[in-house]
Amino acid sequence: MFYSSLPVILTDLTALVLASPRLEKRTTFTGVATFNDFIKQGNTVCRHLTARNPNHFGAASGDISHDISPGRCDPPLDPDESKCNKAEGKPLDDHYVGPACPNTRTHCDKPTCFRVQNIGIFDSSSSNPTGTPIVVQIIDSCPAGHAQNYCKAFNADPSKIVPSKERCGDASTNYLDIDYNAYSKLTGAAFVEGQSANLNIQITEVDCITEQDK
User: Fold this and answer.
1) I need a labelling partner for 22 at 20 to 30 A (CA). Which of 37, 63, 83, 181 fits?
2) What is residue 13's predicted lDDT score, i.e. its pLDDT?
3) By 3-state DSSP, what share of the chain in percent is helix, strand and coil, each rounded to 5?
4) Does 89 or 23 have the greater pLDDT score?
């Protein structure tokens, strides 16, 4: 007579999952934060420009971010350099229409929040950050396949070329574009457009209401 060993295997696997921290769900990640004026931007996928909780901050997450993507935008990343004004690092067409991000709507209807902590200046050896952690709610997506983003890889002035990690163009980087009003809390310094440094951050998924870790 044949007896299946599947129940035993499943029992052993369950015990292994419970015992091994390597197999536990991980909800804390590292990433990069840039900062944006959503009011000036004027629109988001979620159709509102701030977080629902006035103590939280709105943010966009990169659609190809490894761990915190709100869902891929359409069309996906397929940079067409012919659409770029390479001298200025922007789309040639002022009326360029970027990708749609319907998958982000899930995060609009059922809000997603992260606790964000400053862990240093981006691309710097700084490891003595100041400021306090904040909570962000995802209200928008940053599409890597948008010419407004991938065209930043070009510029006649090399100092104005933006690395992929700072324009949501790197799939291995967890990217957040955060309401600029959060900068002073994260760093202890006022935000100055064009001058304030982007940040290395720690990102932890939390409940939007209780702010407890998920």
Assistant:
1) 63
2) 38
3) 25, 25, 50
4) 89
Cα–Cα distances in Å, from 12 out to 6, 20, 158, 170? 10, 12, 57, 38
Helix (H, G, I), strand (E, B) or coil at 168: coil
Nearest-CA neighbor of 175 among 36, 33, 46, 73? Answer: 33
> pLDDT tens-digit profile of 115-135?
999 999 998 776 667 799 999
Q: What is the 8-class DSSP label of residue 13?
A: H
Residue whose C-alpha is closest to residue 206's, from 102, 140, 134: 134
- In the chain, DSSP finds a helix count (H) and a strand count (E) of 5, 8
**Shortest CA distance to 53 belongs to which of 160, 141, 137, 150?**
137
Q: From the CA atom positions of the chain, what is the Rg in Å? A: 20
199 forms beta bridges with 33, 121
C-alpha to C-alpha distances, 52 to 55, 89, 135, 157, 192, nearest whole angstrom: 9, 34, 11, 40, 25
Q: What mean pLDDT is predicted for residues 187-203? A: 95
Distances (CA, A) of 120 to 30, 60, 74, 177, 202: 11, 20, 33, 16, 10
pTM of the entire predicted model: 0.84
